[in-house]
Structure formats: C-alpha cells, structure tokens
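Support case: flavin-adenine dinucleotide complex. Customer-provided input:
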Amino acid sequence: MINRVVIVGGGTAGWMTASYFKAAFGDRIDITLVESGHLGTVGVGEATFSDIRHFFEFLGLKEKDWMPACNATYKLAVRFENWREQGHYFYHPFEQMRSVNGFPLTDWWLQEGPTSRFDKDCFVMPSVIDAGLSPRQLDGTLIDQPFVEGADEMQGLTMSEHQGKTQFPYAYHFEAALLAKYLTTYSVERGVKHIIDDVESVDLDSRGWITGVRTGEHGDISGDLYIDCTGFRGVLLNKALEEPFISYQDTLPNDSAVALQVPMDMEKRGIRPCTTATAQDAGWIWTIPLMGRVGTGYVYAKDYISPEEAERTLREFVGPAAADAEANHIKMRIGRSRNSWVKNCVGIGLTSGFVEPLESTGIFFIHHAIEQLAKNFPDDNWNETHRDRYNDAIAHVMDGVREFLVLHYVGAKRNDTQYWRDAKTRKMPDGLAERIEKWKTQLPDSETVFPYYHGLPPYSWGCILLGTGGIEVKPSPALRISDSSAAQREFEAIREKTEHLTRTLPKAYDYFSQLS
Ligand code: FAD
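Agent response - structure generated as follows:
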C-alpha cells in the first residue's frame, strides 16, 4: 500500500500539504517532513484567494483559532491603482456577479450604467473597502450576500466543484512565517515526523524512481511518494529527476521582486481590507495590511530596472516607516514544471510553478494541487491515469492564470514608459488574442474564457477589462433593444445596500482587535 509520504521543504507548500493530508487520511498515512535549518523560505506570499477558506474548513479550523495567531486580516478585493492612468483605481472584488435577464450586470452597466465606476455600480464591496470596514459585524455575523456559508451541500467539495455555485466575499492576508509555524504545530500534533536537516542527495533506482533522500545528519529517509516542496530550487523534481521547466517569461516578463516587512501602528493607519497593486514604471508594488505590519514589495522586470532602483522606488513609496526594514531581493522563476508529477515524485508550490503574484495565486495553486493529489492519490500499481489527470489539472490551472495575468498588461491603458508600451506588443499565450476579439462586443462569460478550471470566474476577466481601460469593450448588441428597467432596479438595490453597509459595519481594525 502506498502510504509513506516524504515531504521535502517546510515553507507554505510543505506545511499546507502535511496538514491537509493528515486531516484527510489521519493515521492511515505516514508523513515525514524534512526542512533545511539554514535555507530559508521565500519569505513572502501573504495574500490569498477566497477559496482558501475551504482549506481551513477542511482542517477543522475556525477563524478565531488561527487568524489572531497569524496576524491575519480580511481581503475583500484586489485594488488596482494607476493601471489606467495616474490617480485612477478600480477593484476586482470577491463578490458574486449579479445578472439580470440572462446578462451579467456589467454588460448592462456598459449599456447604461448610472455612473462612470463599474465596480461601485455593480458590486457593494468597493465602497465597504474604501471605508475600511469588516465584512463581519463584531458579533461575527457575515454580511448578507448571495453565497452560502457552511451549507451542507457545499461541504467536502473541491474548489473546482464549488466554482459557479458560490463566491465567498473575502479571502485572507496572513504572515506566511506564522502560518507555517501554526501548521507545523497542527501537523506534528497529528503525527507528522518533523526533521530539520538538509537533503544533500537523492537516490534513484535503475528506472529513475526515487528510493530515498540523503540528509546531512539524519541519514537516509525513504518513503513511497516524495513531495518536492523545496521552492524555486526544485531539488527532487527538477534537479534529481531532471523534469524541465517551461518558462512563461516570453509573455510575463517580470522576473524579480524586492520585499519589505514594515511595522506599523495599524490602529492609527486603519486597515483597508484589500491587497493593493500600484502600477510603477517597470512593474507594480503590492501592499498587504496585516495586524501589526504591512507587507510590501516591488515586482519588476530586470530588463527595465535594476534591483537597486527598484528598492529605492519601493522605499520612497512606503516612506520613512521603511527606513529600518531589511530588503528581501527575490529572483522569480516564472512558469511551470512540464509535469508536476513524475514517477513517484510530485512537486507542489514554487517547485511546481509560479506566476507573478498580481492576483495572489501562489497559495491557491498549492491548495488546488493538494486537493487534486488527494483526489488522484496513487494506487499500488502507480496507475498512470491518476498521474495524467493530476498533471493535466495542474497545467491547466497555471496556463489559465497566466492568460488572466497577461490580460492585465495588454489591457492596461497606461502607456507612459517603455515597459508599458512593450506590454501591448509582447507575444500573448495562444488563444488569448482571439478571446479578446470576442470580448470587445460581449464581456467574458463561461463560454469565452479559458476553457479549463483555473480558479477565476468569468466576472473576474470582465473586471480587469473594464478596470484597466485600454481595450474598448461594447455591451452586448441585444441590450440596445432590451428593456433595462430591471437592471436599473438592480443598480438602485446595490446603491441602497452599499449605503446601509457603510453605515452599519464596524471598522476592520476594530473587528480584528476584538477577535484576538
Ligand atoms: P519556499 O517558501 O521557498 O520553501 C522552500 C522550503 O524548502 C524551505 O523550507 C527550505 O528550507 C526547503 N529546502 C530547500 N532546499 C532544501 C534541501 N536541499 N533540503 C531540505 N530543505 C530544503 N502567493 C500567494 O498566494 N500570494 C501572494 O501574495 C504571493 N506573493 C508572492 C510574492 C513573491 C515576490 C513571490 C516570489 C511569491 C509570492 N507568492 C504568493 C507565492 C508564495 O510565496 C509561495 O507559493 C509560497 O510561499 C510557497 O512557497 P514554497 O513552500 O513552495 O517554497
């Protein structure tokens, strides 16, 4: 029976995998996790997708259990600043798109929206975020939205099975190091063997299958299934098994980042409950508010700006509070391993693949990979069907997200530096140009977006097109000859609801203070 699992790497990927597998398989699985004591983790990755709540639910954890321990806050959207022009911003919120007479409300908005702000006319969250509010009342009651919390029929579904049924209205920000620590305790308490040591070499049999990993001080560690969570190093999958890496660099040129952890008095500053992505001359800066500090970083392309200039720009952007913060310069490997599962080794996390963190998809990739591996767990004969299904699912998710990110750059109206001008003429992933042509006369729907599960509902694609503003889109022709009164009532209902919520919800900071 295949039930001895060796995980190499103790970053977010390693510990999420260990804890999920313990929750899924209990004592029927034997897990050893080896992590280096001196090779650090990547040290970033603090914003998530709203589906992440299924991960914590699966582990049986409630927000009050883990959020205070990880200085976590809510994330209701990504806020894009200066992607169209200086001073402009828009939101890509976690909020179910309403539809009227079979058309998404954004289509009606294009036809005759009440104001020039698609995000505030079609969703309630943007105004809640602008006011720095929590989506939960102080007693924990969640705002009334079209989604189902804790509904029985939703329990135990994977993220891909959930899609389209519901859109939970928020994700989380958390301190990555604290989450890894929290999940370490969770996993070890449930029987995961934790070894701190370096894997110095990997033993292969004559067929090239892994028979064990050799550590510096703990000798050989062997199992049936090996999970490579060694980050960009890809020690097992890419180095020992020589699985090639497919670069996305030709379509997504950002290959570097510099990050700062900036301590702040969040009570004074207030928490804007979203991740902000502020466009810069050669990339963009993320801002992630946590309880006690802000995480920030400049993602850029080295062909356009040096690491020194990027760090200087980031420090100026943050201001005096960043003076004592140590910069973490990161070289990013953008793309995916050709196959994430090869022989008896599965790469999860940065080893498997990574696209720049513009839509916070790294941890989503990990969560999706874990769900897929649990679903396609190998049988005793290593039936190739499980492996092939897994590899297809992983490749589709990353290829789909790559397309989505490319749309941000192709769609950005901003044209003021060489970086932004080149973004309009750079090669696009196959199929995207054709899809964009379709969207010019009807916003993205489930029939016209990337055809495989990739985590992003059609409305997300529509938000980026409408927000970035560089591609002219028109409403569906049918709406010109349709009665719009029902859509106008919906816009009015959103306006009233927004007004009610901004009057009654507590400040985000106050909510988290009382939670801890
Ligand atoms: P790592 O964190 O690099 O961990 C690798 C582990 O392997 C470490 O424990 C290391 O000690 C161990 N290791 C390596 N070699 C050996 C060896 N020989 N022997 C033993 N142990 C070894 N994702 C998001 O979802 N949201 C975000 O906002 C986000 N922002 C990001 C920003 C940047 C700039 C980058 C680069 C990534 C970002 N990500 C984000 C992605 C996210 O950080 C990663 O997906 C996540 O942290 C998982 O990393 P990992 O565990 O795969 O690798």
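The pocket of flavin-adenine dinucleotide is lined by residues 8-14, 34-36, 39, 41-42, 44-48, 176, 198-199, 229-231, 233, 235, 257, 259, 297, 330, 332, 349-350, 357, 360-363, 366 (CB under 6 Å).

Case will auto-close in a few days if no follow-up is received.
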